[in-house]
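>> received
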Amino acid sequence: MRSPLQLILDLFDEPPAPTAPRAAPPVAAVPVPAGPPAEPLARVLTPQAFRHPEANREILLGDLVVGYAFRRARRKNIGFVVGAEGLVVSAPRWVPLTEVDAALRAKTRWITAKLEQARERQQRLEAARIEWRDGATFPFLGEPVIVVIDPRHDFRETGAVLHTDAEALPGVPRLTLHVGLPHTAQPAQVRDAVQAWLMRQARRLFTERLDHFAPRLGVQWRKLSLSSAGTLWGSAHGSGAIRLNWRLVHFRMPVIDYVVAHELSHLRVMDHSPRFWETVASVVPDYPALRAQLKDEALPPWH
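>> returned
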């Protein structure tokens, strides 16, 4: 019995030569413009693939070939994690590989949807990547800011100065950041100057918002640290230490307020129980929508 794949391939086999018909009167040949070359059959039939950089196993889920990183771990069940790099599967040592494959197939719809979402997000991230030079644009508090290399000034204390054009035309960024660098500055120099300015703004803004929400939540924060974590936006310690990702300054102020209120709420409830979310909602009622923006919006990569 032939495999289903073989049966599919047979559909493209050349049919038997038909019986030759009687000759027809000759017709003048009409030139046909050449179209684009036909896509190779192998490419048409090859399933779309998602492959983790550390993939050591592979499985066909629906129409997708998924290469995933498989790990044995001290756990009670099979776990799936879909991240920017792809799928990671962890399983107890006693679980046979056939059972792992069965679990993957049972989760086909969820896994493929998450992989598609991760790929789309990665594409948005790449599209947001900034070419650091005069005229580059980056987001600050939800607004685009244009970088202006300004060698006429030496911003030794501030590194850069933000200008606002109140008469900017609709659709034209009204904010420009003048950076005191020569026009020969390398992209890394421009990036570092902008990052240093953003981090100063982050510390100032975060301090203001911590001081705003702490009394309303009945808590006291003691120390603020800035982080550059890839996916963690903030953390809180029972001692009153708050850690916030400086890249939050790319978002609108309501999103920043949500993260600040989230971390301060942990000084009252150190978990994510219903009581914790009630605490957050007491000062930021629309936190679910703001939380969604934090997850969905693609920010420019900084490395």
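>> Helices lie at 4-10, 41-45, 97-106, 108-128, 187-217, 253-265, 274-281, 287-296.
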